[in-house]
Amino acid sequence: MSRTIPYGGDYNPEQWPEEVWDDDHCLFTEAGIDTLTVGVFSWSLTQPAENTYDFTVLDRVLDRAAAEGRRVCLATGTAAVPPWLAKKYPEVNRTDFEGRRHRYGQRHNFCPSSPAYRARSTALAGRLAERYAGHPALLAWHVNNEYGGACYCDLCAEAFRTWLRDEYVTLDALNDAWWTTFWSHRYTDWAEIEPPSALTEHWRGPDHTAFQGITLDHLRFTTDALLGCFTAEKDALRAHDPRTPVTTNFMGPYRPLDYHRWAPHLDFASWDNYPPLDAPPTRAALGHDLMRGLKDGAPFWLMEQTPSTTACRDVNPLRRPGELRLATWQAIAHGADAALYFQLRASRGACEKYHGAVIGHAGRDDTRVFREVAAIGRELALLGDTTLDARTPARTALLFDWDSWWALEISDGPSRHLRYLDVVHAYYRAAREAGADVDVVPVTADLTRYDVVLAPVLHMVKGDLAARLEAVAERGGTVLATFLSGRVDRYDRAFLTDVPGPLAPLMGIRVDEWDARPREFTQTVPELDAEASLVFEIVQPRGAEPVATYGSDFYAGTPAVTRNAFGAGEAWYVATALDQPGVDRVVRRVLDRHDLIGPYPGVETATRVTPDGTRLLFLLNHTPHPARLTAHAPATDLLTGKHVERDEPLTLDPLGVAVLRLH
Ligand code: GLA
Ligand code: ZN
């Protein structure tokens, strides 16, 4: 079979009589669909009772797929527990943040610490692998679905204590890390430790905690507890199937789980792209680049996107003609090696019956959505294997750190209005709109290959990160940090030095005070012709030179942005939440130093380099107007076969896409 980008999506034939499957496969052929994600929610069918497994339907689904020449991404189906399991073992039901033990209902509803759940989910995964390892249709394993949430039951409390013992070994170390002498919290027995919840350390929800240390550790614990479910299922699969790659579908920048802790355990990363409504195109791009960063730049799968509309929001707008194609090519431009939808056929009943699908309730092939899906299928067929395994040659890195995200947003002071993702996105967007390819990487990543490292709101600085950032500047690179960076250690204890802590020598500044103001308040930064808001750190240069200053108040004229010469390079510090034009101006000056600017307004560019060294330049016109560009090098558009010479004009239609192979 020739390799192409797997194209298809979630498919639930078990909900339908087999006559419908015939129509499905005809329609799949028509749309160029070759990959089916199967069995994501079929536990109650494959195991209708504790000691009964029934694979008849799944056998037929896989055999049929194989007969039709399609591949299957086979789910273990453990994300929604069957009613009998919840009834017989109530411990599998989660206990929520308010301490309420849930009863059977919904999905993603299992307690990660429940031995009853663990035993039965791994048994199911093992049975599936035993049966389908080596099946001609099997392409990949899809463990569970969109892991998330937390459980506060007694089993989880006990597991949390065990996690803490492993982490701290002694209670003295834990008391010190959490700073428990504050408010008389010194623990003298591990059994005294309660998970942080509405009944214990929290008020006003998960972000308001009396002790950041325990809440941070609980977030890490929850990440690891769910990861334990994943690795247990993966082990069960591996016992019977040593080869087929295993993944689970992530959710991009999803706060509750630190995906960097998961990444080493996946064979490849995959994710579900449902960008927030009205988000600029860089928001989805940030998700793609974050997911590509999980496996050191290796391609990932776009496991889900809607072909038309979601159902779960209050208002669910349609994707306009051309938008699906643009979103699909955007994913591929950023490193997706598969393009899959949720869902192939619309559910007849329940809460997702209005969720968009390739095939609607009427089963037609002459709908707009079906035609657009089929047209994309034809383009992917044209492309063949050209983009598979291609890498992004980014020279700019953006550090993404779940610990900093958590620490910032559970902090009392200086401002509850700061959102980590908003600030990170603003810097990411500035770099992307300036034309730079960006790797979004963990703080532990190898930084030696980058010219520019952007480190927005790096609230927590761990390990040798400060030294590695200094090394970037030392050898001529540029590091950019912002307000509320370098504040706390890995336990959320303030550094006992000048702000920004370990980053202070590199930044060449000292911060003693910071002001926070209501959302509506803005302050001008005249040199950047920008506005600033939310937080205003008062910076004293200690070697750095001011680049821009505050326009008013008692700190008028003091630096809002500084630049410090360091080794052969530079360190920039942005002391306040600049508006997007302000962030753009600062980031462009940084990128300009390294000749990394080359944008066309409204047109996104992204580069991938194939294993044989071919450079592919993706051009994505996000505007409703034609975009006129000029080729910088001779190239062939792989979607049209058209050849352009250097300096030849090139027009992209509104929402148009070009995939240029550069010569
Ligand atoms: C998620 C889930 C799917 C489906 C879609 C609907 O991504 O993984 O099962 O519920 O959302 O948008
Ligand atoms: Zn639990």
Overview of the molecule:
The protein is α/β, with parallel strands linked by helices and 663 residues long. Helices cover 30% and strands 20% of the residues. It contains 17 helices and 27 strands. The strands form five sheets. Strands 5-4-3-2-1-9-8-7-6 form a nine-stranded parallel beta sheet, with helices on one face. Strand 18 and strand 19 form a beta hairpin. Helix 5 runs parallel beside helix 8, helix 6 (154-168) packs across helix 8 and helix 14 packs across helix 17 (580-592). 48% of the residues are buried. The mean pLDDT is 97. The protein binds alpha-D-galactopyranose and zinc ion. The site of zinc ion has 8 residues, from helix 6.
- For the record, give the distance between the C-alpha atoms at the N and C termini, rounded to a whole number: 28 Å
Ligand identities: alpha-D-galactopyranose, zinc ion
Question: In order across it, which strands form the biggest sheet?
Answer: 5-4-3-2-1-9-8-7-6
Strand content: 15-25%
Radius of gyration, rounded? 26 Å
CATH architecture of the largest domain: Alpha-Beta Barrel
Name the CATH homologous superfamily of the largest domain: Glycosidases
Average pLDDT, rounded to a whole number, is: 97
Low-confidence stretches: none
Q: What is the CATH topology assignment of the largest domain?
A: TIM Barrel
Q: Name the structural class.
A: alpha/beta
Number of strands: 27
| Helical coverage, percent range | 25-40%
